[in-house]
Design a protein that fits this description.
about 220 residues, mainly alpha, Four Helix Bundle (Hemerythrin (Met), subunit A), 8 helices, about 70% helix, about 0% strand
């Protein structure tokens, strides 16, 4: 196993373990079947995506492994990434506390719907990875990078963020929490902030991006915005 693969698996394991802690500790129980199902689905799909990148696009895997506030060069992006990390954790914390104190009840059907949304969101992210090998976890323009306008990029300019939004809505529902949906809102705001910053950067630094913006007019939702 290469050093890159070891880092990728270690990072994924650390993420899953962190999510488990922010679910079962605030809930103060392991009898939380919604959390177990979510963790199983999330681990299965992210592992499959990781294995695909290991085999077919290790360069993209390298770009994705270098993530988080410390990987950003721009102070604004460091702040955005820090806020994104905190907001992401908040979704799980609120959902777990909701389960512990029984603030709301969603029912099994909505839990299943949440799992479906999580799966669809991660599938969209996977399709983005297949289409664009330069989908870095940081805002940058790589050598020989070109503007991609095919696949999901033919519909919206930021399909990975669109997939993330779908997944984020699904997370609290899959965990059996209505209140967790409120916790999604801060992270959505941070993602939108990053989206605008990223567009400004790409306009200045990526050849063909201005023309792509005039062709594909929608950022996240086709025919809406």
């Amino acid at each position: 196993m290469t050093e890159l693969n070891v880092r990728a698996w270690a990072g994924l394991a650390a993420l899953v373990l962190t999510l488990a802690c922010f679910l079962f500790l605030p809930a103060w129980t392991v009898c939380y079947w919604q959390a177990w199902v979510f963790l199983a689905l999330f681990t299965l799909m992210t592992s499959a995506i990781t294995m695909y990148l290991m085999k077919h696009d290790p360069e993209l895997l390298e770009r994705r492994v270098k993530a988080g506030p410390v990987s950003e060069n721009d102070p604004i992006q460091k702040l955005i990434q820090s806020l994104a990390s905190l907001s992401f954790v908040l979704i799980f914390l609120v959902s777990a506390l909701d389960h512990r104190w029984d603030w709301s009840r969603t029912g099994t059907l909505l839990t299943v719907l949440g799992e479906v949304l999580v799966g669809i969101g991660l599938l969209i992210v996977f399709l983005v990875f297949k289409e664009n090998t330069f989908t870095s976890a940081t805002i940058e323009v790589g050598a020989k990078q070109k503007t991609v306008s095919t696949g999901p990029y033919a519909l919206v300019r930021h399909p990975m963020y669109a997939g993330a939004f779908v997944m984020l809505v699904g997370v609290p529902l899959s965990l059996g929490s209505w209140w967790g949906l409120l916790a999604v809102l801060p992270l959505m705001g941070v993602i939108l902030w990053r989206l605008f910053e990223e567009e400004e950067y790409l306009r200045k630094n990526l050849d063909g991006y201005l023309g792509y913006q005039s062709t594909v007019k929608y950022r996240l939702l086709p025919w809406v915005w």
